[in-house]
Design the sequence.
């Protein structure tokens, strides 16, 4: 089997046998003509299947090592469809420190339909075990917590899910299949389902909203495929093509982004304005050794604590190369204040308990020159001392 970087570069290649086009065509059509009564080309209506979307889904299946993949209109559309696997009265155990939209979806939407969730510390496997009830149906965890980048023990959680006959769902947005393939964690263990906000690293250019689900069991894949069609929150052909385009450079982008992230994390540790840096690529980070046991990289997102709100304001208003914007994983570097952006829907008490303070800043490093980014941050730090 080719190496992962090769699979990424070849994603969607030669999927048009009629012309031999190297780039998958954008099949911008709602419906498809049938050859004759009782016959089909395999495509009937774009909500159900579209050749451009199928090229992306097939590529992700090969990249993830699963049996099937499904593309959705956003990461939250993907997660919403997955939660439709469950019934009224079902219960999920969810890692604390998840994306704020995950909390909002579970607590303010699906809770109204009788699906409940218990949140436990992401690094505490025993807490996951203690939270399992007779009506628990799944464990849901992110491969790195957002925004403090804590590292869960994914193999132990996979074993826990198997021992208790629960689904194990991993949101792998932060690490991507280039650094981690949760469907195969070794020793026959792995997630049952992997979900991505493909808007982030997979598409990679801050120009697309998309979600991906990959599944390792055929029967479960059939259920997810049914829900994809029934719920209808599918990825449009143009966005599927943009995501395929992003996959082709994923390996190159992530290698460059991770190098810059480690350099900037080490530099931030030397700055008097910075109280603490969260990044598992640092040797003294609590998750450094654990992550190395099941992943091949540390990601290109870091967070750090500043002294006060005034320092945060000076930074976000002073940087010129780094945009003050939500999201992550694109070629352009972004700076975010999680307490007022990604996690604003949580209560102040909950944010404080999770370490999402008003002075916590998250950086998603792009492919710019690392020295230029350091100069940009240093200049902002020096303003109005």
Sequence:
């Amino acid at each position: 089997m080719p190496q992962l970087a090769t699979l990424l570069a070849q994603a969607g290649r030669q999927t048009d046998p009629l012309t031999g086009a190297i780039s998958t065509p954008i099949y911008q059509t709602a419906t498809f003509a049938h050859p004759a009564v009782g016959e089909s080309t395999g495509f009937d209506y774009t909500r159900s299947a579209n050749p451009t979307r199928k090229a992306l889904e097939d590529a992700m299946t090969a990249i993830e090592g699963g049996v099937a993949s499904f593309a959705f209109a956003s990461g939250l559309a993907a997660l919403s469809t997955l939660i439709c696997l469950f019934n009224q009265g079902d219960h999920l155990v969810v890692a604390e420190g998840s994306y704020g939209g995950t909390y909002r979806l579970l607590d303010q939407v699906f809770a109204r339909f009788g699906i409940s969730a218990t949140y436990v510390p992401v690094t505490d496997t025993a807490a996951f075990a203690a939270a399992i009830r007779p009506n628990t149906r799944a464990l849901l965890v992110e491969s790195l917590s957002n925004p403090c980048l804590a590292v869960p023990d994914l193999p132990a959680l996979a074993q826990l899910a198997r021992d208790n006959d629960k689904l194990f769902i991993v949101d792998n947005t932060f690490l991507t299949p280039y650094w981690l393939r949760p469907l195969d964690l070794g020793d026959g263990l792995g997630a049952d389902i992997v979900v991505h906000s493909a808007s982030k690293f997979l598409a990679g250019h801050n120009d697309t909203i998309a979600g991906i689900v990959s599944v390792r069991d055929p029967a479960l894949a059939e259920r997810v495929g049914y829900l994809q069609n029934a719920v209808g929150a599918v990825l449009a052909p143009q966005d599927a093509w943009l995501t395929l385009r992003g996959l082709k450079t994923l390996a190159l982008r992530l290698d460059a982004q991770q190098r810059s992230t480690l350099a900037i994390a080490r530099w931030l540790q030397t700055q008097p304005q910075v109280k603490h840096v969260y990044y598992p690529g640092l040797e003294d980070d609590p998750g450094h050794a654990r992550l190395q046991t099941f992943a091949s990289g540390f990601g290109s997102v870091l967070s750090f604590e500043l002294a006060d709100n005034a320092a945060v304001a000076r930074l976000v208003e002073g940087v010129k190369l780094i945009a003050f914007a939500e999201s992550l994983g694109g070629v352009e570097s972004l700076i975010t204040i999680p307490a007022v952006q990604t996690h604003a829907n949580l209560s102040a008490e909950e944010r404080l308990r999770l370490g999402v303070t008003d002075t916590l800043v998250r950086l998603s490093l792009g492919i710019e020159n690392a020295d230029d980014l350091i100069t940009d941050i240093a200049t902002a730090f020096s303003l109005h001392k």
Summary: The two ends are 56 Å apart (CA to CA). The mean pLDDT is 94. The first helix runs from residue 4 to 9.
